[in-house]
Specification:
By secondary structure, the chain is mainly α. It is built from 12 helices and no strands.
C-alpha cells in the first residue's frame, strides 16, 4: 500500500514541480512512449537474458510481496514459538517415539493443525519437521552445535533463494540510468541525421532525446531501487520467524528452562512484531 502511495507522490511531485516551474509536459509526453519502448524493452530483455524461468517467476511474485507487505503477523510468531516449544516439550517428556508421527507427517499432526497459518508455510514446516526428524532418528545423540549448523545451512539456502528477486531488481535499478543513456544517444543520432532542419525542430528533437536520460534516472532511483529496498525489508522481516523457531529448538536442546527458551526466541524479533514475554508464556499455557 505504502509503495503505491510513494510512487504516486513521486510522480505528482516530479511532473507537478516541472509544470509549476513553467515547463511544458507536451514534449515529454510525446517522447515518453518511444523512450519507454527502448528503455523498457532493453530492461525486459536484460532480465530475461540474466535469469532462468524460475527466477523470472519469482521476480513476478516478488511484486505481490512488495505491495502486500510481510507474510507473518505478530500472532504468527507467537504461534510458531508456541508450536515449536510444544514439540520440544513432547520430545523431552515422552521421547522420540511420541514425536515421530508429528514430524514425519506434519500435515496429519494435531499439533501442527492447531496452527493453520504455520502449517501453510511449507519452508518453515520443513525446517521444524526435518530438524526434529534428525533428533528422532538419532535418539537424541546429536551434538547441539551440529543441529544448529544444519539449521543454519538450511536457512541460509532458503534465504538466498528468497533474495534472488531483490538482487535482480537492484541490478536492474543500477542498469536503468545506462539504458536511459542508450535511448538518449539514439535520439542524438536521430537528431544529427536531421542537422539541416531549423533550430526549433532540432531543439524539439534534442529535448525528446534527453527524455530518455530523464526516464532512466527516474525509474532507477525513484521507482525500481526503492521497490528493491522495500522487498529486502519484507524478506528480512519474514526471515525472523525462522530464527525464532531455531532459537526455541537450540535453547531447548541445551536444557534451558522454558522462560529462557521463549525469551531467546522473542528477543530476536523486531519491535513491531515482538510479543511480550507474558503474552508468550500465556500462549504456552493455553490461555
Amino acid at each position: 500500500m505504502y509503495a503505491i502511495i510513494g510512487i504516486v507522490v513521486l510522480l505528482v511531485m516530479v511532473f507537478g514541480g516541472f509544470t509549476i516551474s513553467g515547463g511544458s509536459l507536451g514534449p515529454v509526453m510525446k517522447a515518453m512512449p518511444f523512450e519507454m519502448l527502448i528503455i523498457g524493452g532493453a530492461a525486459i530483455g536484460a532480465m530475461i537474458a540474466g535469469n532462468s524461468l524460475d527466477h523470472l517467476k519469482a521476480i513476478g511474485a516478488a511484486f505481490k510481496k512488495i505491495f502486500k507487505g510481510p507474510q507473518h503477523t505478530k500472532q504468527d510468531h507467537i504461534d510458531a514459538i508456541a508450536l515449536t516449544s510444544q514439540l520440544m516439550k513432547l520430545l523431552k517428556n515422552d521421547g522420540p517415539v511420541a514425536l515421530e508421527s508429528h514430524v514425519t507427517e506434519p500435515e496429519n499432526s494435531a499439533m501442527f493443525s492447531a496452527y493453520p497459518n504455520i502449517l501453510a508455510n511449507k519452508p518453515l514446516v520443513h525446517l521444524i519437521s526435518d530438524t526434529l526428524t534428525l533428533l528422532v532418528v538419532s535418539s537424541g545423540t546429536l551434538e547441539v552445535h551440529a543441529v544448529e549448523e544444519v539449521m543454519d545451512n538450511a536457512m541460509k539456502t532458503h534465504f538466498h533463494e528468497l533474495h534472488e528477486p531483490q538482487h535482480a531488481l537492484q541490478t536492474l535499478a543500477d542498469a536503468l540510468p545506462a539504458l536511459g543513456i542508450v535511448a538518449a544517444v539514439l535520439g542524438v543520432v536521430k537528431t544529427m541525421g536531421s542537422i539541416d532542419q531549423p533550430p526549433a525542430v532540432l531543439g524539439k528533437m534534442i529535448g525528446a532525446a534527453l527524455v530518455g536520460t530523464f526516464l532512466g534516472v527516474l525509474l532507477a532511483y525513484g521507482i525500481v531501487a526503492p521497490l528493491a529496498g522495500r522487498l529486502k525489508q519484507v524478506l528480512e522481516q519474514d526471515e525472523m520467524i525462522f530464527h525464532a523457531v531455531k532459537q526455541v529448538i537450540i535453547a531447548s536442546l541445551y536444557g534451558h528452562p522454558q522462560p529462557l527458551v521463549v525469551e531467546s526466541a522473542r528477543s530476536g524479533l523486531g519491535h513491531h512484531i515482538r510479543p511480550g514475554l507474558n503474552e508468550l508464556l500465556d500462549a504456552l499455557r493455553g490461555r
